[in-house]
Amino acid sequence: MMAFHLLITLGFRFISAESLLPQPQNVEVVSYNMDAIVKWDAPLTSLKNLTYTAEYRMPSTAFFHTVCKAIKEHRCDFGDLPSCHGNYQFRVRIELEGNTSSWVKTPNFSLKKGTVIGPPNVTLVTKGGAVEVNIQNPVLKISSLKEAYSKVEYNIRYWKKTDKKDVFEREMVTEQRVKLKPLEPNTRYCVQVQVYIPMPHNNTGQYSKAVCVMSTPNNTTTDRERRLSEGLVVSLVTVAVAFPLLLLVPWIIYKGKRFLHPKVKLPEHLKQHLIDSHQYPYLASQITSPLQEKYDHISALCEENPYNVLTDIPEDNLYHVDSGVSVEMPEYYNAVAENANFDMPYKNI
């Protein structure tokens, strides 16, 4: 009988092991720009060294993914969830020395509906009496604002810095560049912008910090525009001067290399001629000058009838040489010499 009672007692303790530890309190999901952080409070208990485990799942699946295990903090950052679309369910429990509490589950949570959209980045530019508002969407943890929502709108409010009570508003603006006009000239205006997601999500974001600027009269150029125009002109002039010079530098280098190291090689005999002409400049000058032939013209005359004697010499009996001198054949010359004595005057030509 006692054994049966002991068995029942042990079974009861095993079955109710989870209920021995209290549950976490005030479990909630906080989301900012598509992140997901689960927060909770510790239970009212005297137990110490409690740890926590947090998990999540999508309703379409039955399996939970553990993100934070055996932590002592009262929050768990789930980081980058798989998608910004759909719903998520989160749960947390307490653990102590092998014992655990029961899970505390959150309702299904939609990031697109439940997240808080942060303020956009706003810059102002004054143009011809109007103020141009440039809006840059906040950065999300998952995806981008345009990808997460099919339609994104903006609410703009602006006022004179000297009169904060009189506020002007422009709602449901779809453009990210908006001109505010008419404005009073030479007046400082302040602007704030918030993101608005229409139905079915109906999510209103946070307003940006107030940005102020001085309006200008109509058809006037601001100092910023003037500086931009001057900088643009200087840049164009610099590029116009520097670009041709940059193109000429490689060409000059190329020509210099070609001049110092020509590709065409001189023939060997011309190289030798140049070397010889360098060693013997006088001889080279004599060789390169045109050759002139010099010769003496000799005439043989007979005292009695020199012309008859000479003119009777047949042409075959004359001997011609390169020096320009015509000489009769030796046999005939001896015969004439025996019969007549004559002088042989000559002259140089």
TrEMBL record:
Would you tell me the protein name for this molecule? Interleukin-10 receptor subunit beta
Originating organism: Salmo salar
PANTHER family linked to this entry? INTERFERON GAMMA RECEPTOR 2 (PTHR20859:SF46), INTERFERON/INTERLEUKIN RECEPTOR (PTHR20859)
So which residues are the signal peptide here? Answer: 1-17
Asked whether the keyword Phosphoprotein is assigned, the reply is no
A Gene Ontology term for the protein's cellular component: plasma membrane
Tell me the Gene3D superfamilies matching this sequence.
Immunoglobulins
Q: Which residues form the Fibronectin type-III domain?
A: 21-114, 116-219
Highest taxon above the source species: Eukaryota
A molecular function (GO) held by this record is:
cytokine receptor activity
Q: Which residues cross the membrane?
A: 232-254
**Keywords in alphabetical order:** Membrane, Receptor, Signal, Transmembrane, Transmembrane helix
